[in-house]
Amino acid sequence: MSDEIKNEEYNPDIITLSDDNGKEYTFEVLDAIETDTGRYLALLPQYSDPQEMLNDSGELVIVKAGIEGDEEYFYEIEDDDEYETIADAFVDRLEDFFEIDESN
What is the pTM of this model? Predict the structure, then answer.
């Protein structure tokens, strides 16, 4: 037996999404939830410029997955009740790992 301690490296799941105008945004996928209404991702914006990171609100971005042909795409949740339900589920799952401010 080895007394060596395994050093587990943190390898975040990074995705790049484009808006309707073709502008690209990079996110770290923090969590995913599948429900009867669909698949959802909790995303944290990633920035190459440290100043942009400081200016960020720190809010999670929550998107819903859709399928078109063979392609998966993500879009904003427009239904307020659906958004609140999913946001609450992510907060419950992530609050032990991250400092989450629910005062908004």
Answer: 0.73
